[in-house]
Specification:
The complex is a heterodimer of chains A (292) and B (328). Chain A is mainly alpha-helical and 292 residues long. Chain A has helices at residues 10-33, 37-53, 67-98, 100-105, 110-137, 149-176, 183-196, 208-216, 218-230, 246-274, 277-290. Chain A starts with 9 loop residues before the first helix and ends with a helix. Chain B is of the alpha/beta class. The two termini of chain B are 18 Å apart. Chain B contains 11 helices and 12 strands.
């Protein structure tokens, strides 16, 4: 065995950064998924599912599908979107204010690893509740879990691409927003977006111009993809053009991912560069005085 | 305690091997100048304490040295690198003890230390094996029995010791500590001082800020006082004491009577006392002005406008003869 090279190679340093992000992800997920926070993530979707269970026999627009069946992927989209994007934003604001990010700055490779870990943790906290919901709802509803291997595959790539299309914008918000109170505005905007994205009801029932707006944004496509993954094939009759539009889904979500990856790193670098002990002290004084 | 040679009046060429060298460092926030030309050096294995009133710019200075803040002007080198341009290899040689607050509260003590230790693995060399073994380090800072506690359940002093451990886990060549012992109990403080001295013996350079003058006195080879945006004093704690007062208090007891006498020349005075007839001495103490008195006098001078410029302060300090302190 020869002695390790010094200074270390690029590969060795990247390896340490990646391993750090994975360690962080394992520890944070253990902490967060075993905490009361999990109940808060599950509460609204669980209430929604129970509500939907009363609509099992109500058909959607003369189709063979019930409102309940369509509602299940809707709740999955809601869970994914509302815990992903605001989740990473809130995480970054917290870590900026409590010194986590400054601590990471003192460690070689620490900031890159921390931010990467934050993305993985958020992906985990967004997908974890989704999977739990699917497991919980499966015995009561038909078509909550994919019926075929192809369906599972679709679920996987739509979830991952849905997260990569939205998380960078959450990171962008986290880097730009001054404090956590402003997250409310973000959450309200997201719920509005969910409302116009045909997540709970076919988008064709919305005014035409809203349809165009919704189709330019990622949430509609995440919803379409998840319906494709979990609903039976005949549900396609409710979609625009009676098609799952797989290529368009990949294109739109991929486009948002690219845009996000172009914008977010610059904002994150700026945020990390500005992080200092004096800034941390200001944040501490602010939190102690105002509570947020 | 070693007396470091003082720089001469003309601004010195930095000694080779200086870990930290700063010349004419200036920093303004908007139009408000905070640092107006700071000069300082820290040699290999040297422990330097940076003192100064709140708002004097201690934290700003340290943050510039850590590479977290770009200076307005001046020559700054840490381990030969301009900090703001320092890369990860340079960063791996630095230990930073932050004034932390509440980060990683739900992590366990050992978990966080082991996690951060992992980042130093690629930077290990045969001369400097990295990271510091986590359990050994926890033991050194007295947290071995708290290894599996959640960090938010630690007391302030225990949390501070964890901060110190994190600063050390990469086996740094230079260590920056911002008020490291705030909240320590006396035993923890003494253990910490032993740890710092042993690090200095293994050639780690240490720059610390503190408000605890007793700590600076015990720990530092050299004390810098930052006031009014400049270093107004630079010398060993003894130099500093003598720079503000040459008067010593001599206290001695003989034949059951205690005598106290103030003098500028304790040696000559004591020769006289020893020469005088009488019984055996039962007590003898020569006491200079305390570091605290010296510090307060210096800061007061700056704040009341009787600003000694730093070159003059150094001239004053250089003129001080080698110490002759006698105690029995």
């Amino acid at each position: 065995m020869s002695a390790p090279a010094f200074p270390p190679s690029f590969a060795a340093r990247i390896g340490a950064v990646l391993r750090g992000a994975l360690r962080q992800t394992a520890i944070e997920l253990r902490i967060q998924l075993l905490s009361p926070m999990l109940a808060s993530w599950l509460f609204l979707p669980a209430v929604g599912l129970i509500g939907l269970s009363f609509l099992r026999d109500a058909p959607v627009m003369d189709s063979a599908m019930s409102i309940a069946q369509l509602g299940v992927p809707g709740i999955l989209v809601m869970t994914l979107v509302t815990s992903g994007l605001p989740g990473i934003a809130g995480q970054l604001i917290t870590e900026r204010d409590d010194g986590t990010l400054l601590r990471a700055k003192t460690i070689p490779g620490g900031v890159t690893s921390r931010l990467l870990g934050d993305v993985l943790v958020t992906a985990g906290t967004a997908l974890g509740p989704m999977l739990l919901l699917m497991a919980a709802a499966a015995p009561f509803f038909d078509g909550v879990t994919p019926a075929s291997a192809g369906g599972w595959w679709t679920l996987l790539w739509v979830s991952v691409l849905g997260l990569t299309a939205t998380l960078p914008f959450g990171a962008l918000c986290g880097a730009l927003l001054r404090n956590a109170m402003l997250l409310w505005t973000l959450a309200i905007g997201l719920y509005a977006l969910l409302a116009i994205s045909g997540v709970f009801y076919p988008i064709s029932s919305l005014p035409g111009w809203l349809e165009v707006v919704a189709q330019a944004l990622p949430v509609y496509w995440i919803g379409l993809g998840l319906r494709h993954a979990v609903l039976p094939p005949e549900a396609v009759s409710l979609e625009l053009g009676q098609s799952w539009h797989v290529l368009e889904t990949v294109a739109v979500l991929g486009g948002w991912t690219l845009l996000g990856l172009l914008l977010a790193p610059a904002a994150l670098r700026r945020m990390a560069r500005r992080q200092s002990g004096s800034q941390l002290e200001e944040a501490r004084d602010r939190v102690l005085a105002r509570g947020y | 305690m070693t007396i470091s040679p003082l720089p001469t009046v003309t601004l010195p060429e930095e000694p080779p091997g200086a870990t930290v060298e700063v010349r004419d460092l200036r920093m303004s926030y908007g139009t408000t100048p905070v640092l107006r030309g700071v000069d300082l050096t820290v040699g290999a294995g040297e422990v330097v304490a940076l003192l100064g009133p709140n708002g004097a710019g201690k934290t700003t200075t340290i943050e510039i040295l850590e590479g977290f803040r770009a200076p307005s002007a001046g020559h700054v080198r840490v381990l030969g690198v301009e900090p703001i341009t320092g890369d990860e290899v340079w960063r791996a040689d630095l230990g930073v003890v932050l004034q932390s607050w509440r980060d990683h509260g739900r992590w366990r003590v050992r978990e966080l230390l082991a996690h951060l230790a992992g980042f130093y693995v690629p930077y290990s060399t045969p001369q400097r094996p990295r990271p510091w073994p986590v359990d050994d380090l926890l033991d050194r800072v007295g947290l071995a029995d708290k290894a599996n506690r959640q960090i938010l359940t630690l007391s302030g002093g225990q949390r501070r010791r964890l901060d110190v451990a994190i600063g050390l886990v990469g086996r740094p060549r230079v260590l920056f500590l911002d008020e490291p012992t705030a909240g320590f109990d006396p035993q923890a403080r003494r253990d910490f001082h032993d740890l710092i001295r042993s690090l200095a013996d293994s050639d780690v350079s240490i720059l610390l800020t503190t408000h605890d003058l007793d700590e600076a006195d015990k720990l530092a080879d050299r004390v810098l006082v930052l006031a009014g945006g400049r270093i107004v004093a630079d010398g060993s704690p003894d130099d500093l004491r003598r720079s503000v007062s040459t008067t010593a208090e001599v206290r001695w007891a003989r034949d059951g009577t205690t005598h106290v006498h103030s003098t500028d020349d304790p040696v000559t005075y004591l020769r006289g006392v020893f020469g005088a007839p009488g019984g055996p001495f039962t007590d003898l103490e020569v006491r200079r002005a305390s570091l605290e008195e010296a510090y307060l006098t210096l800061v007061h001078r700056v704040e009341t406008g009787a600003d000694v410029d730093h070159a003059e302060a150094r001239r004053l300090l250089s003129a001080v003869p080698t110490p002759t302190e006698e105690t029995s």
